[in-house]
Amino acid sequence: MLLAFSMRVNISMAIVDMTDSKNATYFDWSYSIQSMILSSFFWGYVFLQIPGGELARRFGGKVLITISVSVNSLISLFMPILAQIGGWQMVIVCRTLQGLTQAFVYPSMHHLVSQWIPIEEKGTLTTIIYAGAQLGIALQLMAAGFLAEAWGWQAIFYTNGALGIIWTIIYLFIGAGRPEDSKYISKEESLYIRTSLGRVEEPKRVKTPWSKILLCLPLWAAVIGHCGQNWGFFTLMTEMPTYMAKVLGMNLTQNGVLSSLPYLAMYALSFPMGIMTDIIVRKKWLSVSNTRKLSNTIGLWGPAVALIGLSYIPEGNLTLAVVMLTVSVGVNAGTYTGYMLVLNDLAPNFSANLMGISNCFANIISIIAPLICGVIIQDESDPTEWRKVFFLASAVYFFTNLFFILFTTSEKQPWNESEENDIETKPEVKVK
Q1: Which pLDDT does position 405 carry in this prediction?
Q2: 200 has pLDDT over 70
Q3: Which residues pair with 40 in a beta bridge?
Q4: CB within 10 Å: which end of the chain, N or C, has fewer?
Q5: SS3 for 324-376, per residue?
Q6: To 10 degrees, what angle do helices 122-151 and 252-283 make?
Q7: Domain ranges in the chain with CATH number 1.20.1250.20
Q8: Measured between alpha carbons, how far is residue 200 from residues 60, 193, 259 in Å?
Q9: Half-sphere exposure of 229 (CA within 13 A, CB side)
């Protein structure tokens, strides 16, 4: 997750140096071309979300996550050369291909979680896994400036690519799609995991019950929660550097370091959130469903309040503004044990499919939200226009989580292991 998200955001920092005329190798790209390059990743990313979920269920999470990281790494390694040969058009092709293969990341990871993590440890271990995304963003934002300054913007891509290739080689040897296939754990540990997940026997091959999935209201409540999270998260991720530069008056070095703080906060807060939910479930203080709702409420209503507070910070109060931005993103950590786990709880056998559906819609929102910001903000240095953006994000956070609270559940759905979905059925034998 850390490597995937590092390669997802590396262009955001690299493009600043790639278009700097002071460098020996630079590109004279207009702002509109830079915008196309930055958005091209999501053109491919959205396209394969739902197919990615089905592929993960059929072929396992290990295969797809290996393809995703290895392809992204190879593209990163060759990006500097390809950019010089093919210009911005080739960069867009590369970014679209990276998006296409990263469409497998969440569905395959969700499938691996459904196969590997016992129910009693799901909050903590799932958090450790998914928090890697925020750590990847934070480390990339911090490291990119230093790498570019020391060895040029090319070093950003070479570093990401080399680390990804090393990871791929290691994972090919020690990774496994499920406990039954692993050579590195004991039979006792494998049995413990499978018993906790109710999967002691060899799982049946079942068809994907698409009609039942699409008519599942708790699923759509989780999807709505996911969309609300992505609206606020990607509004801040894409607009925060501009806000810090134009309204708070930060230079590029400050911007890179301070922009990483919210993601470091989200990474740090994810662990106590994960541990807290496991304790609540073990102690039976709340049902699993209500525990997920509590986590998601912290993850969405917390930022809603913080963004309203950010809107009214006195002009020039840099410290308080950074604190509120950090809180706004940091407490998003609650969503890791909120809608994320509901997508797993509802149907473990089809968790990759559910994540594919949810991530498809949520990332359409990721594309739309920054565009809406561009319509609202005409003067980037005007705090009142930013206030409108923050209030809109706050409202989206509030109402999407309200829908989540009212209509979702963590109860396993009956179609998760429905016998009528079996692919292989024995012929009926008539006895005369």
Answers
A1: 97
A2: no
A3: none
A4: C
A5: HHHHHHHHHHHHHHCHHHHHHHCCHHHHHHHHHHHHHHHHHHHHHHHHHHHHH
A6: 170
A7: 1-197, 210-413
A8: 18, 9, 46
A9: 29
Pick the CATH number of 1-197 from 3.40.50.920, 1.20.1250.20, 3.90.215.10, 3.40.50.2000: 1.20.1250.20
Per residue in 238-272, pLDDT (tens digit) is: 677 667 777 787 765 666 677 788 888 988 998 89
- Which two tokens mark 50? 């739902």
Which token pair is 430?
């008539």
How many CA atoms lie within 13 Å of 86's alpha carbon, on the beta-carbon side?
A: 11
| Percent of residues in the chain assigned helix, strand, coil, to nearest 5 | 80, 0, 20
Main-chain phi, psi angles of 367, to 5 degrees: -80, -40
Tokens read off for 307 = 């963004």
Residues 65, 110 contacting (CB under 8 angstroms): no
Q: Which two tokens stand for residue 95?
A: 């970014």
CATH of 210-413 among 3.40.50.720, 1.20.1250.20, 3.40.50.2000, 1.10.150.20: 1.20.1250.20
pLDDT tens per residue, range 30-58: 867 877 887 788 888 888 888 888 888 88
Give Rg (Cα) of the chain.
22
The residues pairing with 422 across neighbouring beta strands, listed in sequence order, are 206
What is the three-class DSSP state of 244? Answer: helix
**What pLDDT score was predicted for residue 390?**
93
How far is the C-alpha of 210 from the C-alpha of 416, rounded, in Å?
11
Question: Residue 248 corresponds to which tokens in the numbers above?
Answer: 């708070």
Contact (CB, 8 A) for 397 and 301: yes
In Å, what is the CA distance from 342 to each residue of 77, 177, 363, 407?
37, 21, 18, 12
In a 10 Å sphere around its CB, with 0-12 CB exposed, 13-18 middle and 19+ buried, how is residue 314 labelled?
Answer: exposed
User: Distances in Å between the alpha carbon of 275 and those of 192, 296, 315, 405?
Assistant: 20, 15, 38, 21
* Residue 237 identity: M
